[in-house]
Amino acid sequence: MNSLAKSSLISKALEIDGWFDEAELGLLVRCVNEASLRNSISPKQLNIVEIGSYKGRSTVALGLTMAALSLTGTIYAVDPHEGMRSGKHDSLSRTTDIQ
């Protein structure tokens, strides 16, 4: 994938609220590309499972990358939406009383 296409899809993903920054999204793009290159069974098909999707920024980046590489497959974005936030901009606070 050329750098212009990569920049364009990262820019589109950054329009969505989320925790992944530009560098992290770039890593996802490279990971999808590398996974497709290593898939010797079906190089044009890739299935991805993402655990924790918040508002979908990284999911969109994954999907746009698959489309740009002309890959078929499915992205499963799994998030229990239990209301607990633990991203780099949030503090994780859960306390238990131990006696």
Helix and strand composition category: mainly alpha
Sheet-strand content, in percent, reads: 5-15%
The helix/strand series, from N terminus to C terminus, equals: HHEHE
| Overall shape | globular
> Main β-sheet: number of strands, strand sense, barrel status?
2 strands, parallel
Distance from first to last alpha carbon: 57 Å
Give the low-pLDDT segments.
Answer: none
Strand order of the largest sheet: 1-2
Instruction: Please work out how many helical segments DSSP would assign.
Output: 3
Number of strands: 2
Number of domains: 1
Radius of gyration over alpha carbons? Answer: 16 Å
In percent, how helical is the residue content? 40-55%
Write down the overall mean pLDDT.
86
Description:
The protein is mostly helical and 99 residues long. A two-stranded parallel sheet has the order 1-2. The radius of gyration is 16 Å and the shape is globular. The model has no long low-confidence stretch (mean pLDDT 86).
Compose a concise summary of this entry.
The chain is mostly helical. It has helices at 3-14, 22-38, 57-68, and strands spanning 48-51, 75-78.
SSE topology:
Elements: H1 3-14, H2 22-38, E1 48-51, H3 57-68, E2 75-78
List its traits:
3 helices; 2 strands; mainly alpha; two-stranded parallel ribbon; 99 residues
